[in-house]
Amino acid sequence: MTGTLNLKELLTSNIRQSGILLALVVIVGFFSVLQPNFLTPGNLTNIVLQYSYILILAIGMIIVIIGGHIDLSVGSLVALTGATAAVVSIRSGMPWWVGVLAALAVGVLAGCWQGFWVAYVGIPAFIVTLAGMLIFRGLTFQVLDNVSLSPFGGTYYQIANGFQNGILGGYGVDVFTLVIFAVAVLGYAVNAWRQRRAAVSYEQEVGALPLFVLKVVAVGAVVMWFGYQLAQSRGLPNVLILLAVLVLIYGLVTQKTVFGRNVYAIGGNLTAAKLSGVKVKKVNFLIFVNMGLLSGIAGVVFSSRMNGAQPGAGNMFELDAIAACFIGGAAVTGGVGRVSGAMIGGLIMAVMSNGMQLMGADQSTQQLVKGLVLLLAVAFDVYNKRRAGS
Amino acid sequence: MSDTILEMRGITKTFPGVKALEDVTLKVRRGEIHAICGENGAGKSTLMKVLSGVYPHGTYEGDILLDGDPVRFASINDSESQGVVIIHQELALVPHLSIAENMYLGNERRGRGGLIDWHRTNRDATELMDRVGLHELPVTKIGHIGVGKQQLVEIAKALSKDVRLLILDEPTAALNDSDSAHLLGLLRQLRDQGVTCIMISHKLGEIADIADRTTIIRDGRTIETLDMGEAGSTQDRIIRGMVGRDMEHRYPEREPHVGEEMLRVEQWRVHHPTQTDRVVIDDASFSVRAGEVVGIAGLMGAGRTELMMSIFGRSYGRDISGRVLKQGQEVDVSTVSRAIGHGIAYATEDRKAYGLNLIDDIRHNTSAAGLDKLSRLGWVNGLEELKVAQDYRRDLNTRTPSVLNSVGKLSGGNQQKVVLAKWLFTDPDVLILDEPTRGIDVGAKYEIYTIINRMVAAGKAVVVISSELPELLGISDRIYTLAFGRITGEMPVAEATQERLMSLMTMEKEGAAR
After folding, report:
1. Which of B348, B371, B402 lies at the smallest CB-CB distance from A275?
2. Can you tell me the distance from the alpha carbon of B418 to that of B404, in angstroms, rounded to the nearest whole number?
3. Confidence (pTM)
């Protein structure tokens, strides 16, 4: 009974995802009208550079939240891992990659520590990570002896500030960047088509063909336009490549692996998951180890961007990451959410901060507006859920 | 005052894509007990939600007349102020609050300055508790009394709101026989005091016993209203009305082909998880053979679920001792995944709390226990998973447009089929079914029995726990009785009668000869 859906059915069947995507489009439109500088190549590049570490954290955080937990320690852990890299690379003078590995190792260790308490001792993640927030911050101060360490310089600095350009030449527009984006769009189109074919062969409903083509073309056009903007500016940022790879990997991990499925099962109904043979402790442990690893990566990116490590780095990052997840459709009770949603949620926060900065709004206004957006986004979600339920 | 307390006329309620009720008519006479029967998903609960204002006026078509006057409830508070009180199947009590606090929750007895007058609260609560025959202290925490008594608290709470029309949604579904009997007695007593009752129930014996009239609903329409005093109003007649067909055999026929011993449990002993010196299962031994359905009979609290869950990956209790043998070999079932690995499956009695992830779809719930079979190196084959879910939907006749629909929106019978699909997919040798037909309708029950028969025909061993003795007698080959954590008897079904089983199920420790 293969059927096709029209536009309205497609949108309403996935109202969460289409709702936040629509919100992102509206916000981008809003700022581009008010601020001519907003959609310029230079500024778009800036947005990517400025918020990449929050997006990286949000990837780990969405998995934590789907599992029914929360992690308040990631901001402190970003500081600690960045500090570790600085101590290794700057103070001890070791090569840049040793610093990176040390930061990641510290991140994983911290994740193991928190995972142990949550999974095997059974202490709620809120408490464990609240403690972690204090512990890791304290350790950061100790590791850095209460002073900032800088500069990294060299390759380490290039991680968050470098670009890939000029490899294939071009006249003011970087060809390499365009080629990479074209390959990505092609890959997306081919994958979407294969998914659609498979869904049809397994007798699932799919959107009508013209709509499908329209969607792929629209997504492709937006992505290529974005690529063209970057190519006009400084080329392809290294962090964007890193972020894209992470999103791809974790999108697959959450949707296509046993681990990902188990996370949804635990967050959805813990007892049912236990009685279905899910190794709950192991999965919970791994959720936090993974969060630690991603905090380590974010720590490297952030310290690289700052070209140094400060004891107070990463303050409030956890709240931005958590907000990104909830704006992106995650449920407080767990079991619901997607990496793509968290990314859109993170982008909404990023675009708003950037847009307001361009308009000269001060810090207080920015926080106020961001808080309201978080509240409204979740209220919209709740409203939809209630309407669907009655 | 007219003879009719409630009349619902031409009620039609539509959800997106589904017509849940169509032109339903219901007339309830003053001072009667009026039963409402129907398969799951027939629209009984929806009708009661319309009546009690859960679905406010304007979201449905039709009229509700109370004492002949049209009423338009905007909320539950509205209906309650008119003396229409609904008690849901899932009780709405707060476990950490006392009986009295629960009874006056949202309706607090205020004293001077708006502060709560606890003396009056507790005194009034005690009075109402006396009226429903509940002998507890008003300050006892709800969590410390059993489900049967909690049900009485709900009724007392309704009485505190000056109820005229009491609606009960499957009030005895979770109660044992003596608690049920007490509750039904109480309903009769309330009727004599002038409280009209509407009762949704699946237990036809109970309806025959207590109801004055019965309205049957099928597929969102009223089929008929029977006067239970008349000779033609038999259980068979009700079943016929509910399923729309004759139901001569409530249990499908089966030729038993009992084979080798599949599972044996020896000297199983389990302690309570928190009260460590309390023995919940005492020295229980039983076995089940390939191709055999073994029934476990026991009253609520006898330890049936505790016995099975402690075997299935030590999911209950502590300090567990005893041996589990699979086809003669001792096996390690100390974790759920090991138990599944040894071909044991346990379908829980509480499918909503323990069996399903209600916010996820049918597909993912079907594969939840068998993901290993669908994955290589940790990667799930999503398309194969979809195919498996669709195959089971077809095979078990699960009524849903798509396996991508949320499990939470299915009716009880269809949810149970998803639970069964989940366990069938693990390809178990021993399938333990804990109350497999609780809260599901007659038609779906028959389908579940058919699935059980197919399992044993394929050489599997099935253990069924059930509170309904006719069901155990109808589907088992052999029955064990369990009382106070001990196995008190074992007999082939041919020798078993309800009376004999019941006497073994109530056998206390001194008399337990085994």
Report:
1. B348
2. 12
3. 0.79
